[in-house]
Amino acid sequence: MLVDAAARLEHLTNVDDLWEGLVAALREVGFTHAIHISVDAEFRAAQVRCTVPDLYTHIPPEDDPFLHHSCNSYEVLTIGEAFVDQYPDVTETERAFITRAAEDGLRAAFAVPMRLQGSDRFGGFIIGNDMDGATFEENFRSIAEELRLFCLLMHRRIEDLTGTAPLPLPDRPAAFDQLTPRESEVVNLLAHGYSRQETAHRCGLSVHTVSDYAKSGYRKLGIHNRAQAAALVHGAPQKDASDGADG
């Protein structure tokens, strides 16, 4: 069933449509949540798609425990709060992250690590629901190999459509030092032409949360919109555009 879905989805040319179809296919077999995350070899330039709203508000995607504990092999592993005792090396911060995911309905999951040949990026999928560990294993272990193949096909297609990691953004101006790390990241991405939706995907946030960070960042910087943020970042003269907020 999942492989058939992958064959249909591979023909899509828009990554948002692909993600929507991927999530729908997983929900048909009982998985209510999905995360796709990849980083470069230095754990930077994370690209994230996630059905759990605001999961990465308190921890950057690059610090997701999946990347640090589940990507040393290509095996399909069980992760999440339901299986956390299998990972005695998780830190308190990582455990808190896992607990927040469980509170939002991602209690038990399969970790499906991915690394395409010839690419320096790695990551994969986290796919699960709110079942207890025993029930999850009983219901889904039999399709783990089919799930791995589905994820491989979808990972390859997502990477094809999004390309490799975006080029590193230039250093942020000194004025950004007064911002929180999240405000700085969001305002910098918007200033470099990313849409709010693209910024949300890259940061693992909801579009609403991106807007909130942008507004608070603009206020601290004494600016009102994306154009003024771009002028600040690129060193161009700012024109007064207080009536044209577009954050």
Automatic annotation (TrEMBL):
<protein>
    <submittedName>
        <fullName>Autoinducer binding domain-containing protein</fullName>
    </submittedName>
</protein>
<feature type="domain" description="HTH luxR-type">
    <location>
        <begin position="172"/>
        <end position="237"/>
    </location>
</feature>
<dbReference type="InterPro" id="IPR036693">
    <property type="entry name" value="TF_LuxR_autoind-bd_dom_sf"/>
</dbReference>
<keyword id="KW-0805">Transcription regulation</keyword>
<dbReference type="GO" id="GO:0006355">
    <property type="term" value="P:regulation of DNA-templated transcription"/>
</dbReference>
<dbReference type="InterPro" id="IPR016032">
    <property type="entry name" value="Sig_transdc_resp-reg_C-effctor"/>
</dbReference>
<dbReference type="Pfam" id="PF00196">
    <property type="entry name" value="GerE"/>
</dbReference>
<keyword id="KW-0804">Transcription</keyword>
<dbReference type="Pfam" id="PF03472">
    <property type="entry name" value="Autoind_bind"/>
</dbReference>
<keyword id="KW-0238">DNA-binding</keyword>
<dbReference type="InterPro" id="IPR000792">
    <property type="entry name" value="Tscrpt_reg_LuxR_C"/>
</dbReference>
<dbReference type="InterPro" id="IPR036388">
    <property type="entry name" value="WH-like_DNA-bd_sf"/>
</dbReference>
<dbReference type="GO" id="GO:0003677">
    <property type="term" value="F:DNA binding"/>
</dbReference>
<dbReference type="InterPro" id="IPR005143">
    <property type="entry name" value="TF_LuxR_autoind-bd_dom"/>
</dbReference>
